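User: What would this chain look like folded?
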Amino acid sequence: MIKKAFNIVCDKVSAVLEAQGYKKNKVNNTNDNEMVALFTGENVAYSVIYYIDKMHMVMRSCAMTDDGPDNEWKTMATWMFNPETDTEKEASSIGNDFAEAVSSPVNVKRVKQTKKKKSEEGSADPIFLYKRLVKLFPDLKVEIKEEEDTYYPFRAVTFCREKVVPKVNAMIKLGVKADITKLMGILSAQYTNGDPDTRAIVTIVILNSIDDQYKDIITPLMSDELAKAYKNALKFKGKKVKPEKVKKVVTSTGTRL
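Assistant: Here's the prediction, encoded as structure tokens.
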């Protein structure tokens, strides 16, 4: 029953995605606890997965790279499916929900934004910056995923204030030059390669959060471009950056988890 139910769900998702130009891929799955279907497009990949032990049917998405999916999967929807009690009717309902999720206006807009960002050279976004900072602050990896799973669009400024700035300030106060040098190196590179939002976050949010007493320590460790931008950004120190207006991701309707 579960194989038939899984195929019902995947067929409904496939019909919608293939109309959008996505391709269904063969998956070599060695995990006996999972059933997986993968759909890939130019910029985004989708996956339907059924966890046999948990009896969860899950719809996920992630970004595409030149080598394929980046495997940083974000859960879009989760349903319970018990093959002993549920029927093809429940499978069809799940399939319809998943199909709606990938074809919703919000999701289509998200894909278009992803395509636009990938087509713009030198336009790494704030999330890219935060993922580079994971090298210095490992806890960010989990915090980034929690933010992505809870809010859309990603609250770049709010996330930086709440999660990044405290870590940066703690590192600066600790005073380990090797770590501070790495931090300024990452900020310099991302300022150079970043889009306007990223540049503003590096200067107005992150650097302007650092106490003035450390200015002479961090400035020599920056690139010339960032040092100049930092000097200009100091004029805005103490002024508020307007937070994003976002909605929480809804993940509970009926038997959906």
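The radius of gyration is 22 Å. If you want, I can go into more detail on any region.
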